[in-house]
Design goal:
single chain, alpha/beta, Rossmann fold, six-stranded parallel sheet, two-stranded parallel ribbon
């Protein structure tokens, strides 16, 4: 499908930001957020499809406050599950008149983290908390209404835009004398730029079904934090290093349980793309360089 018009939900988020930065000049991108399109209202979604007639919808909107979701289950369910179903239902109905593809973004949190090998797309799901459960429900509703949709699971997303682990660590490293970071949760940090570029390439290749997309390699949150500090110090984003201590998850209790191992198998994605996804350390260096340059241009 040759894309001419793309509608993105969650345009103010990390992925939405990178999708806008990486879109081809030939594509008209309609960037929406909760203020311009309420995706929990199927009538608004249907009206938007009629108004814009997009070739593709990328649903990058989500309730991502993992801990808050434990006590705010209704809102997490509305945004992550019901809204995803509404979008897929509206697209399926609109497809009777004009073909529209749907890309829906999901998460590694649909897994319980008890495996020791990377999760393949068809691996058994068993979310540990409300966030993962609502995202899984969203996947299921999308597939029920629109089997041709592309569902992409990603993990540990960060970018120069918005709030994320990298930017939080940089702030803590400037404000505190030392840090404790959990070492017994392992995953794949992912630059939102990697995900955005992969989405455009996968759509171009007419990908469907469930695929996994993250940067390559694995790290614990502790490994990730140590690397952030080393790279930020090298670039001059930090003036000094502070001690970072590895701690167990039990020493840092959170309302939501998190998978101990959420590394995903991306071989099918790479086969479809025709190239290897970047190593997470390489992506982190590029993101921090971009952050450094933005500070010095301001």
């Amino acid at each position: 499908m040759k894309l001419q018009k793309v509608l993105v939900t969650g345009a103010n988020g990390q992925l939405g930001y990178e999708l806008q930065r990486t879109v081809a000049p030939s594509i008209e991108l309609i960037a929406t957020d909760y203020q311009t399109l309420d995706i929990t209202d199927i009538a608004q979604i249907t009206a938007a499809l009629e108004q814009y007639q997009p070739d593709l919808i990328i649903n990058a909107a989500a309730y991502t406050a993992v801990d808050k979701a434990e006590t705010d289950q209704a809102n997490a369910q509305r945004l992550n599950a019901e809204a995803a179903g509404f979008i897929a239902q509206a697209v399926a109905q609109a497809n009777q008149h004009k073909p529209t593809q749907l890309v829906h973004i999901s998460t590694d949190f649909v897994f319980d983290g008890t495996q020791s090998l990377p999760y393949v797309p068809e691996a058994a799901t068993a979310p540990l908390g409300v966030y993962g459960a609502t995202k899984l429900s969203g996947e299921q509703q999308v597939q029920a209404h629109l089997p041709t949709a592309l569902i992409i699971r990603t993990s540990w997303l960060y970018s120069t835009h918005g709030n994320n682990f990298v930017k939080s660590m940089l702030r803590f490293m400037q404000e505190r004398e030392q840090l404790g970071v959990v070492y017994d949760q392992v995953g794949s940090p992912t630059w939102a730029r990697t995900l955005a570029l992969s989405i455009w390439a996968l759509v171009e290749r007419d990908a469907q079904g469930i695929l996994h997309c993250s940067d390559n390699g694995v790290a614990s949150w502790y490994d990730f934090a140590v690397t952030i500090q080393e790279e930020a110090y090298r670039l001059g984003l930090l003036k000094q290093r502070i001690p970072i201590h590895p701690i167990r998850s039990s020493a840092y209790p959170t309302p939501a349980r998190r998978p101990a191992f959420s590394v995903m198998d991306k071989s099918r994605t790479e086969e479809t793309l025709g190239y290897r996804l970047p190593y997470w350390h390489t992506s982190l260096q590029a993101m921090l360089t971009e952050l450094y340059e933005s500070y010095h241009q301001a």
